[in-house]
Amino acid sequence: MAETQCILVVEDDVDTADMLSAYFEAQGYKVLATAWGEDAVRIAHDAPPDLVVLDIRLPDIDGYEVCRRLRKHRRTDNIPIVFLTERRERIDRLTGLELGAVDYITKPFDVQELRLRVRNALRRANLGTLVNPITGLATDTMIDERLAVLLRQKEWALLSVGIHGLRDFSEKYGFVATDDVVRAVALMVKNIVQESGVDDPFIGHLGEADFIIICAPSDVRALSERIGARLNQSIDYFYPVQDREDKSQTSGISFGIGVVTPQDGPFSTPLEIKVAALKAQGLT
Questions:
Q1: pTM
Q2: Which run of H or E residues covers position 164?
Q3: Do residues 159 and 110 both lie within one domain?
Q4: Among 49-63, 127-141, 262-276, whose mean pLDDT is lowest?
Q5: Domain boundary at 73, 97, 126, which?
Q6: Where in the sequence is the domain holding 16, given as residue range(s)?
Q7: What is the pLDDT of residues 117-129, one digit of tens each?
Q8: Collapsed DSSP state (helix, strand, coil) of residue 10
Q9: With contact defined as beta carbons under 8 Å apart, do 166 and 154 qualify?
Q10: Distance between CA 56 and CA 166 in Å, rounded?
Q11: Which strands, in side-by-side order, build the sheet including 210-215?
Q12: CA triplet 165, 167, 170: central angle to 5 degrees?
């Protein structure tokens, strides 16, 4: 029999904490809960959970500090952390990425979406975080390995593609439709790269709705233009038919595209390149 997976819920709102505990227990998980950041660090060090659902605003230390402390210790540095917060700014997501969070969900949230994101995070952890479960693209470990190779090279180019406005889209149309958008964009990016005849490309899934393409510097500008044009032409088709004629209903999703090269550094770690890739999209 498989061992029951344990989720640590760190949430100071009693109603939310009780709801999450009851819900995940009903899904077959063991659940530990605390309202305090210091207690969360102690619990995780004493008996590391399989995943942490972590609020950012806590009564003592904030969730970012909890994440920093967990990442500093070998016993807890690989625990998947899902931030659950009211903070919606892109800079907050960047901060979460820099600290090593695997997902970032804003309140109010769909509990079914949270369940699936927790399930996917646990699956990625069990698979060694090799591929994204929605798109099948390389993520985490494979991306870090490829970026580590770039750090040893003098010339390289990285194209960063981000889907912006996806949170608002998800709130209106639901997480299933949102996953369909992410999957469709990933497929279009892959097809464009293949059609372009780029030599030895690498495509990775960076975060919830961001992608990176590693290619030769001579290819990156033309590839950026083709991807941008194709995605912008396709925006309307991500929305239900009844909303496509009303442009006010299809103005939420947009795309950010940017280029990173060694000249944007210096870079000493894969994480620094990933953060630069997100910033290159221009909305930070």
A1: 0.59
A2: strand 157-164
A3: no
A4: 127-141
A5: 126
A6: 6-126
A7: 898 888 777 665 5
A8: strand
A9: no
A10: 21
A11: 202-205, 210-215, 157-164, 254-260
A12: 110
Q: Are residues 117 and 164 in the same domain?
A: no
Comparing 18-22, 71-75, 154-158, which segment has the lowest mean pLDDT? 71-75
Give the three-class secondary structure for 87: coil
Same domain, 14 and 71: yes
- Domain ends where: 126, 161, 178? 126
The residues with which 215 forms a beta bridge, in sequence order, are 157
Q: Which residues of 130-149 are buried (b: 16+ CB within 10 A; e: fewer)?
A: ebbbbbebbbbebbbebbee
Same domain membership, residue 110 and residue 18: yes
Structure confidence at residue 247 as a pLDDT band (50, 70, 90): low
CATH number for the domain that contains residue 11: 3.40.50.2300
* Residue partners of 4: CB distance under 8 A and separation at least 6: 28, 29, 30
Tally of structural domains, the chain: 2
Domain match, 17 and 122 both? yes
Q: State the residue for tokens 């912008």.
A: 232
Condensed to tens digits (0 to 9), the pLDDT of residues 69-113 reads 998 887 888 899 999 887 667 677 777 777 878 888 888 888 888
Q: What does the alpha-carbon distance between residue 119 and residue 77 come to, in Å, rounded to a whole number?
A: 19
Tokens 């600290």 found at: 99
CA gap 161, 228 in Å, rounded: 9
Asked whether residue 10 is assigned to any structural domain, the reply reads yes
Pure H helices in the chain: 14-26, 37-46, 63-72, 90-99, 111-126, 141-150, 166-173, 175-196, 217-234, 241-244, 270-279
